[in-house]
Amino acid sequence: QVQLVESGGGLVQPGGSLRLSCAASGISFRAYYLAWYRQAPGKQRDLVASITPHGIINYADSVKGRFIIARDNTKNTLYLQMNSLEPEDTAVYFCNEATSRLFPWGQGTQVTVSS
Length: 115
What we know:
Distance between the termini: 40 Å
Structural class: mainly beta
Number of helices: 0
Shape: globular
Helix content: under 10%
Strand order of the largest sheet: 2-10-9-4-5-6
Order of helices and strands: EEEEEEEEEE
């Protein structure tokens, strides 16, 4: 059974940084096109960043130059380094497969950017 566990969120001041992790069990990450998503209160869940099995990366315009997605297939873990955080980045962050959101959603990790 596939399980995704996101961690690393928290409360941070504007301009700060956080590093999110997504650990997977029940699958081998290396074969999948993966992504980070986020959902702010009252809004839809949007794709933030994605990375193919071969390391091709794309970012939403709103996070380009600030966020970095990475994967460690040996650890079955996906990462999101978030820098220069803005209040608009406040959301629950999730990981999943990038095209069809194949896997059951994890609980997500809350990121709150506030002074």
